[in-house]
Amino acid sequence: MLIEEIMNTSVPTLTPMHTINDALQLLREKRIRHIPIIGPESEILGVVTDRDLKEATPSTLLNSSSPEIFALPLEKIMTKNPIVGHPLDFLEETASIFYDNRIGCLPIVSQGKLVGMITESDLLYKFIELTGSHQPGSQIEVRVPNKPGVLFEISKVFYEQKMNVLSVLVYPDKIDDDYKVLVLRVKTMNPLKLIEAIRAEGFDVLWPNHPGMTL
Questions:
Q1: Distance CA 5, CA 59 (A)
Q2: Which one of 81, 103, 128 terminates a domain?
């Protein structure tokens, strides 16, 4: 999946000369946590987050008032030269960028101009969609040999059982590199018959692993 398929293209922005007060108002009005700071040609110059604003402004617990702080330009507190992405970047690679750099948002740039934005919340929701966990169903974990064609063998069982698969994930087996763990989400609330069919083909069902268990 490409970033252009999930990015938000209606992104509220400010310029470096807007004030901290401008940013606070925008965050409240739009209910957002990140603001791209752009130049006259829509080029990305920086990012201001709700955390930046909290660190720059006095705490409400303090018995003092500093109105001059709210008039400071955003160029004083923004993160300059932020990490950016491209609309044709892959979702999985972008998730790695978020994790490796501990960032909460990623401006999306094409031909030098800001064209969108994605946040960690956008990524999380998309992965929820991809795993099918937002739909009614059951999860089955199957330990299989790490060899070509094994997914086809498993899929034949689902076909024969007329079972709809919502998602498939593949994980390395923690014990033996010669095996993988398939995590399948299926569109049924009672997968016992399917589990019996999988076991009958010689595969090890890791979850659910209690006899007679109904999900």
A1: 39
A2: 128
